[in-house]
Amino acid sequence: MINSINCSVVETVGDEVKNLKEGDMVIPTYIGECQECENCISGESNLCLTYPLRLCGLMLDNTSRMSCRGQKLYHPMGSATWSEYTVIDVNYLVKVDPSMNPAHASFISCGFSTGYGAAWKEARVERGSSVAVFGLGAVGLGAISGAKMLGATKIIGIDTNEMKREKGEAFGMTHFINPSSSDKSPSELVKELNGGMGVDYSFECTGVGPLLTEALEATKVGLGKTITVGIRAENFVPVGLLSILFGRTLKGSIFGGLKITSDLPIIADKCIKQEFPLQELFTHEVQLTDIEQAFELLKQPNCVKVVIKI
């Protein structure tokens, strides 16, 4: 995973900005939190209605603040962070302690925090429960870490990359499954590790369509809960109907259900206190001018996070 969102330093602020100043260290985010709309006050959703996720590449007023040679440029995910400079609405920024490692701050701008939040805010993993995590990239490792922090006693990581076993164990994984070494399905292998029963919670972090049904099937009949956070290339994926009819719950999640004002600072504080082994994510680093190299690095089996520096 290339770190698409980042950690930045404020260059200048607009006249109406009161809570930030030049030189502040910030994390750009792709959702906001007004703490006043129906979703914010519900306590059940992080999808603010006042400062929503912008997929159109434009600011809230449907204009762009960037251009090149007279041509309008767009703000991907509202933040345009694969750039040296960007303009962003202040409501999509989180100020962090300048003592924080910038690379670690960038890891919690997306990726790791998405998985951690999925366990913490979406699944609300209970102490003593069992968990299966499909895909051990930064998101999956975050889900493992969140499950561990919440007291899950059996945490099963599933990945076809054998090198992810060590990474998973560093974050709290108790069992590892490599489906490519067996003729059985991933869900069957999960049940074998749990006495023939499914797990209490599963997290689909790969974006691979067929694994969504596998993640559902890996949970307990009647009680299992699956959180899907993996981004898929296709908009529609088939889901096994019986997997749902047998009482399991499937829940989608953006940014792991985290609210940027209420929740992200808590994770940032845990990072500063070194409660997560985030250095395990930092496997490669390239300059922004060499960003094409970053895409090649993603093909290497030992790659977890590529940090892009300016």
UniProtKB/TrEMBL annotation:
Record Pfam families: ADH_N, ADH_zinc_N
Cofactor(s) for this UniProt protein: Zn(2+)
Residues of the Alcohol dehydrogenase-like C-terminal domain: 138-261
Domain called Alcohol dehydrogenase-like N-terminal: residue spans: 8-97
InterPro entries: ADH-like_C (IPR013149), ADH-like_N (IPR013154), GroES-like_sf (IPR011032), NAD(P)-bd_dom_sf (IPR036291)
Entry's transmembrane regions: none
UniProt keyword annotations, A-Z: Metal-binding, Zinc
Keyword rRNA processing set for record: no
Assembly description: Homodimer.
Record-given protein name: Uncharacterized protein
Gene source species: Stylosanthes scabra
